[in-house]
Amino acid sequence: MNQQQIKQLETELWASADNLRANSKLTAAEYKDPVLGLILLRYAQNRYQQAKLSLEASLPETPRGKVKLTKEHFLAAGAMLVPEQSQYDYLANLPEGVGICEALNTAMRLIEEEYTDLAGILPKNYQELDPDLLRELIRIFNKDSVKSLTGDVFGRIYEYFLMKFSMSGAGAQEGGEFFTPPSLVQLIVNMIQPDHGIVQDNACGSGGMFVQTGHFIEEHGGKNVNETIKCYGTELKSNNAKLAKMNLAIHGIEGKIIESNSFYSDPHGLIGQCDFVMANPPFNVNKVDKDKDYVKNDPRLFKDVGIPKADNGNYLWIQYFYHYLNDKGRAGFVMASSATDAGNSEKAIRQKLIETGAVDCIVAVGNNFFYTRSLPCHVWFLDRGKREENRDKILMIDARNTFRKVTTTINDYSPGQLLTFTAIMNAYRGDLLAIDICTTQLQAHAIEQATSLVEAVNELRQQCAGSLFNNTALNFKAAQLELAHSVILAKDADYAACHALLKAFENPVPQLAALLENYKTQLDAAKKALDKKDSAGKKQLDEQGKLLRELSAAINAYQNQYGKSQVGEPIQDYKQALKDWQHVLHYFPDGHYADVEGLCKIVHLAEVAENDYSLTPGRYVGYSIQVDEDFDYQNRLSEIREELACLNTNANELMGLIQGISV
After folding, report:
1. Spatial CB neighbours of 377, under 8 Å, sequence gap ≥ 6
2. What SS3 state is found at 149?
């Protein structure tokens, strides 16, 4: 199953499941856990079946026959020996008269009894759902396309459902976020590159940081995740901790998740031991009890200035992350924008942190990256093992104007933008080839996308040419040359060549399309003028209409599959890939890092001290006017002028009416 097919399946499964909820009385928060539990159950069944086939083929014959498969056999194969009453097939085939709610609760209990690591994690409140709704849900995840899925794909579906539930407001309904947007998680993981040792997240939510770390390790060397890292998570909210444990289980990642309050405890005891720390802690937490002995004597705080006077937990989190790191450790975490400029006692803590030399990079993130709040934020990066040349430097990146618009209320980073940020960081760390490598990757990405679009355009042209073969109904000679021409893409095409293809992708058969519109108009007129007794004329018009419909259907099918103007659609994604590529070529024309006004600057600590120890990138990188080449500014200004003239006319008319009223 390729990426496009997986994306389509994710969308279809969510649409089906969400449609059921829309027709029930359940909120997104009430619906979330039962649905995620079913996904885990379906995954366990699939993994069990795949492991069973593999194990049966590998086990030797004995005089008494095949060795009986045990729980230990399945664990060694990375699967669970699913009890019969917990198997998805068993539940899907239950007769209508059997209570499905209790059957599901029993299925979850049996798995927890067999696997103590999952004890208390799986949902067992299916009696709260309508039985008919539950049966429909089970059918959705029992389709043939789902039965054959592997673990990696199931992990993606689980993450996709987590994201969609968060976008539906489930986190807000439960009193907080449980899901960090994927692009921010990817930014953190790409920048700190967690490829070994101990990884900790003190506010782990649903465990997305660990999952993305697993993806990073698999994509950079293909190592076994559980042999490469050890995951430790802490989470305050009980339900979120359960989500995290389920998330790790479905991705095959071993980890220790503890439900605890990080302000008053350090359950893993990893001060000075972590190779990597990642987190998206709750912002601006107030009413932390600083009179508690634990807080007063917390070794995770700087001794002299560690307890901030402000009623705000931001600088407690920041100090925790620093002190957990070993002498080579790196941290990446999301923080409220106010923290980079906070004054008084918080400024003293920030100054102390800056003077350690561990602050590595600050990235300013714009509005609308979170699903339940629209405020901007900053992502902080610490590195206690910075190379000597960078000990007195900080990389500032102002990414507030760098984003991809997903919807009118949600932004994210495109793959190309994430590559660019990573390249800037790697160049700052001393990789002289980082920008060149990034440019090559962006070129390859664009060419890969263009290749599939070229095939689609050529297939459409061939299909239309086939429809016109032996055609005598209408004259399409003006389009024959266009249909006979195949779009060609060189394997090493440069930016100009790839950009030139965009016109063909957006309008693959312009001459044919124009002829179709003309003929449709003519056909409509001819039908109106046709004598009802003219059977020969009617037959001729029917043939023409059939041909026009066939050609229009082919063009519409292409536009529906490739031409929709939203994220995830081929042509729109290709435009974004071109834009990202062009930006890197513009920012770094010689292929090497240089400070870019409005985007990035390497700042010396002396300059930071001069700026009152502010860590706000906008103070340092300056400002540049961003011009969107794809936007028609002149036309929009004309529209605004027309709208203003119309409003002025309406205002004058209204004023005349008011003044004409006699009292």
Report:
1. 283, 334, 335, 336, 337, 365, 369, 370
2. coil
User: What are 359's two structure tokens?
Assistant: 């602050």
Q: Are 174 and 208 in contact (CB under 8 A)?
A: no
Measured in whole angstroms, the distance separating CA 82 from the mean position of its chain's CA atoms is 31
Distances (CA, A) of 305 to 188, 290, 323, 451: 28, 13, 14, 58
Of 49-53, 292-296, 376-380, 540-544, the one with minimum mean pLDDT is: 49-53
Strand partners, 332: 278, 381
- Indicate the DSSP class of residue 614: -
Secondary structure (3-state) at 470: coil
The burial of 600, by beta-carbon neighbours within 10 Å (0-12 exposed, 13-18 middle, 19 or more buried), is given as buried
Give the distance, in angstroms, between the CA of residue 204 and the centroid of all CA atoms in the same chain.
17
> Is the Cβ–Cβ distance between 209 and 203 less than 8 Å?
no
Task: State yes or no: pLDDT of 108 exceeds 90.
Answer: yes
pLDDT class for 3, splitting at 50, 70, 90?
A: low
Element (H, E) at 529: helix 510-529
- Tokens representing 136? 């429909």
- How many whole angstroms separate alpha carbon 183 and alpha carbon 412? 6
Q: Do the beta carbons of residue 325 and residue 277 sit within 8 Å?
A: yes
Percent share of the chain, pLDDT over 90: 58
For 540, residues 6+ apart whose C-beta sits below 8 A from its C-beta are 473
**How far is residue 477's CA from residue 515's CA, in Å, rounded to a whole number?**
10
Please say if the pLDDT value at position 231 is more than 80.
yes
What whole-number distance in Å separates Cα of residue 462 and Cα of residue 485? 9
Please, where are the H alpha helices in 93-207? 100-114, 131-140, 144-147, 151-167, 170-173, 182-192
Could you report the per-residue pLDDT of 321-355, keeping only the tens digit for each? Answer: 999 999 999 999 999 999 999 999 999 999 999 99
DSSP per residue, 473-507: SS--HHHHHHHHPPP---TT--HHHHHHTHHHHHS
Report CA-CA distances (Å) from 404 to 99, 130, 369, 522.
47, 39, 10, 43
Rounded CA-CA distance 527/544 in Å is 11
Q: Distances in Å between the alpha carbon of 169 and those of 31, 280, 281, 371?
A: 12, 18, 18, 7
d(CA 141, CA 92): 9
Taking 50 as the threshold, does the pLDDT of residue 175 lie above it?
A: no
In whole angstroms, give the CA distance from residue 105 to residue 126.
6
